[in-house]
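Sanity check

After download, print the first record. It should look like this:
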Amino acid sequence: MNKKALIAMSGGVDSSVAAYLMKQWGFDCVGSMMKLFANEDIGESRDNICCSLEDAEDARAVAYKLDIPFYVFNLSLDFKRQVIHRFINAYQNGETPNPCIDCNRYMKFEKLFSRAKVLEKEYIVTGHYARIEYDDNTGRYLLKKASDSVKDQSYVLYTMTQEQLAHTLFPLGTLHKSEVREIAEEQGFVNASKRDSQDICFVRDGDYAGFIEQYTGKVCEHGDFIDMQGNLLGKHKGLIRYTIGQRKGLGLSLEKPMYVLSKNTEDNTVTLCGNDELFSKSLDATDFNWIACDTPDSPIRIKAKVRYKHTEQWATAQQISPDTVHIEFDEPQRAMAKGQAVVLYDDDIVVGGGIIN
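Expected structure tokens:
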């Protein structure tokens, strides 16, 4: 076996321990960090967010301690096109995107994966909490949930191909976060107590709308809040400021609690409804990636989750066209948002996933 690995190191504790474990397991390791953006590019002057100088120094310090080479790859142009621009376009089209999925798909397991090939490394290694196993019965690589259910990240990895799974290692898949911290402390890593990154790395303070307006230089057009019958309820401050199921922050004085049901880009309206109207039993998903099996030729019984923190629910999934999978839940699900991912599970195995439309 070619035991050469390119380690994706972010400067955080997870990827640092992943690098340590690979070295302990006898792999010839090279550390790497993806420079995804300059802080000034996103209107951020501080150095306390992802891709900061501090992060690079932490990653380099761990690589030095492990006595492995360390490279920084400038992938900022690709990140703009494949992640930031997709994020902005989705919000402008009334969708609710998950840029972490795009970052994994287009950056870690496409761009960084290709760098590993150039460096003649058989494997790419990340600090994700997930597991990869080979199924002798089917001849396929399986993506599975992590042992730590709280930290499990299999949902954001559903786009991985068989080739990528065959050449990727997740050393933390069988560990709990507390164990990872302990290893980092025992090894004296500078980032052993570093807090985990939160929210979207390129959006400061979670203000998605503010980021989009600053980045594009365009102020979102205000429009009307309406109810399901088309009655005017008030004025909204731009479609990008609202997500499906949102109640707080609407700026309205209403007789009863109302929630965002949908956003219409054609007439620039936001439709509100009561809580009961947020529930539905079916969805269609496109850009679907089947991992555990080939495209099924008949309906399958499966569990599905429609957002990262959602608990998967029983459903029936069927490929109804070359690019569309229809999913019918046994019970109605709340606030399923266009642009989010739906991921299918068979116990702890990721069967596949796609984008809700």
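If your output differs, re-run the checksum step. Summary of this record's structure: Confidence is low (pLDDT under 50) at residues 45-49.
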